[in-house]
Each structure stands twice: as C-alpha cells, then as structure tokens.
Amino acid sequence: MSARTNKRRIYHLLYSRFHGKFLWRSAEEQAWLDVIPVGREFGSPDYERLQILDVYACGQMTSDDAMQKLGIDSLEDLHQQMLATGLKIP
C-alpha cells in the first residue's frame, strides 16, 4: 500500500468518524445523552403546582390527592388546569 493510499484511507476514516451516520461515543458521553429531560416546572414560579400536575398525569397520584394538594373543589377544575398546562388527563 502506497503512502498516498494509506493517507487517503486515514483521512476517510477520520472524516466518517466525525461526519458519518455513526458517531463514536464513550459510555460517559452516552450516559449524559440518555438522561431524562427535566420537567418544565423547574425555574417556574408555579413549581409546586406543576409538579403535582405532572405526578397526577403520570398516574402516581389519585385525583382526590391532587385536588386536595392544589386546593381545588371539583374534578373539572383539575382537568382545566391539566389542559391549560398541555398535559393529558389520565
């Protein structure tokens, strides 16, 4: 193999490493990319309300508990708040 052919092969490998479909990543880099994104409630003045609505939307809280913590009297008001924040009603 000539030096020119070897150089082209190495350049092609480096180019495909950074510009190809497959990008090599270390396990640590992949772990950072796989982290679940944080909810919109962080940094919001309505942090507690949004957190309760998210937990209710995931099904980890009953509607009665959510209404009690939010100080809401009816299930309709709870569902209106869910729709206003863009969450699906469980």
Describe this structure in words.
Helix content is 61%, strand content 0%. It has 90 residues and is an all-alpha fold. It is rod-shaped and about 80 Å long. The mean pLDDT is 82.
Task: State the major sheet.
Answer: none
What percent of the residues sit in helical stretches (DSSP H or I)?
55-70%
Radius of gyration over all CA atoms, rounded: 25 Å
> What is the overall pLDDT average?
82
**First-to-last CA distance:** 65 Å
Assembly type: single chain
Q: Helices and strands, in N-to-C order? A: HHHHH
| Low-confidence blocks of residues | none
What would you call the shape? rod-shaped
The number of helical elements comes to 5
Strand content: under 5%
Structural class: mainly alpha
Number of strands: 0
Attribute tags:
90 residues; 0% strand; 5 helices; mainly alpha
SSE order and pairing:
Layout: H1 3-19, H2 27-33, H3 47-58, H4 63-70, H5 75-85
Helix pairs in contact: 3-4
